[in-house]
Amino acid sequence: MKSAYLYVRVSTDEQMKKGYSLPEQEDRLLKYCEQNQIFVRGIFREDFSAKDFNRPEWKKLIKTLKSNRKRPVENILFTKWDRVSRNIEYAYQMLGILRCLNTKPFAIDQPIDFDIPESIVMLAVYLSIPEAENNRRGRNASDGMRRARKMGRWPGRAPMGYINLSTQEGRKIMKPKQPQADLIKWAFEQFAKGTYSINQVRIMTIQKGLQCSKNNFWKILHNPIYCGKIIVKATKDENIQYVKGIHRPIISESLYRKVQFLLKRKRKQRESKLHTKYLFPLRGFINCPFCGQRLTGSTSQGKLKKYSYYHCNTSKCKGRFRVDFLEKSYERLLQKITLLPNIHELFNLILEDENIFTARRQALNEKYELLLEVAHNKELLAKARRYLLAGKIDFDDFREMKKEHNEITYNLNERLH
Fold first, then answer.
1. Fold of 162-264
2. Which of 10, 28, 107, 292 is at a distance of 20 to 30 A from 127, taking alpha carbons?
């Protein structure tokens, strides 16, 4: 081995719990290269989880290897195999990619000689142990969050309208956050009147100062946490549970139930309208040949099956036509309609311009929305730093917020570029 790229990785949790650090790994790799007279072509420093390979620095490393494919053999040095991956399936896939790139990975603490067939057994051990640790840690975390929910505590980040705080004894609690809590209560009350749609209530609430997307607003109206209930999801051994939370509710249970009833009713009405529109697409567009009134549609039950008809609403009118007959006649009529060549060309030009304009407008709107999300995410992190300095949140909460911020920001920037 004459030259190599160095790869060092650590996640925040590993640094806190096990004492791993990027400088320590880097120092050991550099000493190894010095002792073995290996030229360092570059160092890639990562602070992302190894659950998959969707990592910025690893992507840069692969991109570098792809640009250097004319060179003979490349090498990647790291301390242990869990620095590269904690998922055995993804790891084997990546080894195949590296093989295609004429690149050999090498762990200085867990060396593997790929020329020896039996070495794949040791490789499987090195890769499976960290994955098992990850799965066990994830299982323990999941069980812990489930226990917390059963005790009425909300694990993790508070939903909109609430804020995570800590008591003087260090116990984590969740309290209503103003003015968001009052605005959410107002939104529930307005929707419960049955006068407005979800989007109308959302727009009115936004005008009052609540910043919320369509999807999040829909989730808010369906979330029982605002009436003091916490959902414990069903498992193969237990049914779904609704536990009374220790947090203060923003709305009453009766208001929440009324909103759920209206949401369910509106959903059924929407499904019924969609079904009718699909069944009678010409309803309201064709006039009765006998009386001139618009035709409607309905289905009647026969002896063996149901029959659908377009018919006139006038009681004494005999206009009544089978759906298949009328729709096929209408289709044949459409096929006879043609445009003059010059008009056809004009329509194509208009449609082409409209499509280009629509595509550009959509792209600009999407970019604007992404930039707003990036700015909002930065603002949330800055606020979290202020809370940390003021002692309103502990370092563990800040660390989780920062980790989530980094992942969200990275994904947003990927979509922007």
1. Hect, E3 ligase catalytic domain fold (3.90.1750)
2. 28
Range from 12-21, 41-50, 197-206, 243-252 carrying the lowest mean pLDDT:
12-21
Q: Which string of b and e fits 291-329 if b means at least 16 CB within 10 Å?
A: eeeebbbeeeeeeeeeeebbbbeeeeeebebebeebeee
Query: Partners of 17 in the beta sheet?
Result: none
Distance of alpha carbon 119 from alpha carbon 197, whole angstroms: 64
Give the dihedral sign, CA 222/370/61/97: positive
Q: What is the mean pLDDT of residues 122-128?
A: 86
DSSP at 249: P
DSSP 105-157: EEESSS---TTSTTHHHHHHHHHHHHHHHHHHHHHHHHHHHHHHHHTT---SS
Residue 263 has pLDDT above 70, yes or no: yes
Q: What is d(CA 28, CA 57) in angstroms, rounded to the nearest whole number?
A: 19
CA distance from start to end of the chain: 37
Helix (H) or strand (E) holding 162: strand 162-166
Distance CA 248, CA 176 (A): 7
Tens digit of pLDDT for each residue in 290-326?
Answer: 888 888 888 777 777 778 888 887 777 878 888 888 8
User: What is the structure's pLDDT at 188?
Assistant: 93
| Distance separating alpha carbons of residues 214 and 222, to the nearest angstrom | 13
Superfamily of domain 3-135: Resolvase, N-terminal catalytic domain (3.40.50.1390)
Residue ranges per domain, the chain?
Answer: 3-135, 162-264, 271-336, 341-415
